[in-house]
Amino acid sequence: MTSSDAPHPLLRRLLPGELRADGRRSARDRLADAGCVVVAVFVGLVVYDLEVAWRPQPLPELLAFADLATAAVLCLALFWRRRLPVGLAVATALAGTFSPMSSGAGIVMLLTVGALCRPRTVLAIAGLQAVATLPYLAIYPDREFGYAFSLVWTLTILAMVTGWALLIGARRQLVQSLRERAERAEAEQEQHVAQARQRERTRIAREMHDVLAHRISLLSLHAGALEFRPDAPPQEVARAAGVIRDSAHQALQDLRQVIGVLRAADAGEEPDRPQPTLADLPALVEESRAAGMRVRLSQRLPEPVAVPAHAGRTAYRVVQEGLTNARKHAPGAAVQVAVEGGPEDGITVEVLSRAPLGGAPGIPGTGTGLIGLAERVSLAGGRIEHGHTGGGDFRLWTWQPWPA
């Protein structure tokens, strides 16, 4: 867009904020402009025919030529009505003092000003058109009803068109306001989700930091023992090498989760050290039962201590989030927790929260817990599903692979 396409600085005060930077017209805008030109020509011809039919004397040739030329120029100028709405509206109002064929263009421009400009601008243009009717009725008197009746009738029609223009402007502003609110709410929601994901990534990174530090310290310890005791028995050397191999393997598994996760180093804040596993799951369930929840736990997998640590932590967090949501949104409802799987099938966790009895109100939540949980399960290479079932229960289901 060139600088010549922008509205005049004076018009920037009159136009609403969303129209201060003009863009290119779409095909729909061009079609609407062509329709406005056709309507303006049709209305102008009808008004001209009425004026000539009711006029007691023939219209002077000079006035007829001026009427035709002015109407032709103003009707063609309607293609630029969005770029110069106030200027064209003033021009059509001035032409309304002597040109009946320009009346159609005047109505179109009044409606255009109503759609694009502020109400005070619409009223100003309507007032200018009302003043223009005074010399117009003197040039084109009504031989049957007289000057006063024609003036009242013309002003009534003008008032109706002005009200229509104000209604169009009010609707446009309402739609624009609703659109801006929706866009702002969507942007805030996206920002909120991004912040929730970043917080969960930070928390996961802190946990992984502790795990990796533990693994690497074991590697350093056993490697140092081999370095300072080269004459150790073969059995001890083999055992130390096996520990080093297992620790390195576990460290690589943990590192796969932490890659891409940013760790926020908060000044003066000690990193969290929660290291729950599936072995801690019964304690979590008992804690919920002590709080008054009705929880039934079903585990069909190898011994919890045999489950890899980071996979157990993820499953633990899934159950923890499911119980937390049940306490929030379905107080007093029964909860079924099922954890099953194995090295070949992976680990599946399902938390089924029954519909609350009697529609008991729950604690409102923000939904960020499930967002963070989805991020955690995704980093573990798994899948997550959650939502209401046909019976009104809430089901949280996750699957993650069993690390080799």
UniProtKB/TrEMBL annotation:
Keyword Transmembrane helix attached = yes
* Enzyme class at the top of the EC tree: transferase
Q: Which domain of life is it from?
A: Bacteria
Q: Its catalytic activity?
A: ATP + protein L-histidine = ADP + protein N-phospho-L-histidine
Residue intervals of the Signal transduction histidine kinase subgroup 3 dimerisation and phosphoacceptor domain = 200-265
Source organism: Catellatospora bangladeshensis
Q: Which PANTHER family match?
A: NITRATE/NITRITE SENSOR PROTEIN NARX-RELATED, NITRATE_NITRITE SENSOR PROTEIN NARQ
Q: Which residues form a coiled coil?
A: 168-202
- Please provide one cellular component term from the Gene Ontology annotations of this protein: membrane
Transferase: is it a keyword of this entry? yes
EC no. given is 2.7.13.3
Q: Per its UniProt record, what Gene3D superfamilies does this chain match?
A: 1.20.5.1930, Histidine kinase-like ATPase, C-terminal domain
**Keywords for this entry?**
ATP-binding, Coiled coil, Kinase, Membrane, Nucleotide-binding, Phosphoprotein, Transferase, Transmembrane, Transmembrane helix, Two-component regulatory system
Check the record and name the InterPro entries matching this protein. HATPase_C_sf, Sensor_HK_TwoCompSys, Sig_transdc_His_kin_sub3_dim/P
Q: Name one GO molecular function term.
A: ATP binding
The protein's name is: histidine kinase
- Transmembrane ranges, per UniProt, are 31-50, 62-80, 86-110, 122-139, 145-169
